[in-house]
Amino acid sequence: MTNEERALEAQGAEAAQTATRNAEAKVEKMFEYGYRKSNYGPDELVTDAHGNPISVVDAMLSAEDAAKAETSTPHLCYYSPRIPGNTGSAIRLCAVTGTILHLVEPLGFNLRDTKLRRAGLDYHDMAHVVLHPDFDNLVQSMPNSRIIAFTAHATKLYTEIEYKPTDILLFGPEPGDIPDPMDIMAGPHVAEQVRLPMRPSLRSLNLTNCASIAIYEAWRQLNFIGGK
């Protein structure tokens, strides 16, 4: 190997080491702001920007306060969600859009579930979450709200609705161990049923992907009030 080749090899090795150090520094910087290292432990808590441990419990709002709150987007409701990661992602969605998230029991997970905390990153204390023991409690606590159910059984598209900040966008549980709750999704308290269009050969979208599409369409109609 010539001296020139050795010099080029040394330069390449130094560049690789520099890239590794930069990547590690980036991860450390992200962790300072509540993001997760790739090798976190299963019981490690998500932290806020100041390093304080947080969870969805810190974001809880009473049903009474939720009914009185002024919002720039409709409320989002998950009826009996089963997958903690989906609800964690919904918490993040609600934090960035200013949406209040309603969770109707029974839930398929504990509110301190690690996967829920991971998916919500450090947004848990920036969102508002309301826990309802059953669907009737949701209806009774939000008497002035119109409930719009998102279901594949609907004929009307979600874009055919004129949304209001007082609306509740209702989503049923992920497919799995409980049947589609048509007594809820098509019940007497539901004012409208709508669906998202899909190719006919495919079954469904991820729950929070659907919720994101719906919330942003409603927020768009309301001129993205509160956003920038």
UniProtKB/TrEMBL annotation:
Looking up CDD domains in the UniProt record yields: SpoU-like_TrmL (cd18094)
UniProt keywords, alphabetically:
Cytoplasm, Methyltransferase, S-adenosyl-L-methionine, Transferase, tRNA processing
The UniProt entry, under Gene3D superfamilies, shows: 3.40.1280.10
Q: Name one GO molecular function term.
A: RNA binding
Its localization reads: Cytoplasm
Q: Which residues form the tRNA/rRNA methyltransferase SpoU type domain?
A: 76-216
Catalyzed reactions per annotation? 5-carboxymethylaminomethyluridine(34) in tRNA(Leu) + S-adenosyl-L-methionine = 5-carboxymethylaminomethyl-2'-O-methyluridine(34) in tRNA(Leu) + S-adenosyl-L-homocysteine + H(+); cytidine(34) in tRNA + S-adenosyl-L-methionine = 2'-O-methylcytidine(34) in tRNA + S-adenosyl-L-homocysteine + H(+)
Q: What are the GO cellular component annotations?
A: cytoplasm
EC no. given is 2.1.1.207
| Source taxon at top rank | Bacteria
The principal location of this protein is: cytoplasm
Record has Cytoplasm as a keyword: yes
What top-tier enzyme class does this entry carry?
transferase
Protein function? Could methylate the ribose at the nucleotide 34 wobble position in tRNA.
Name of the protein: Putative tRNA (cytidine(34)-2'-O)-methyltransferase
Give the source species: Bifidobacterium dentium JCVIHMP022
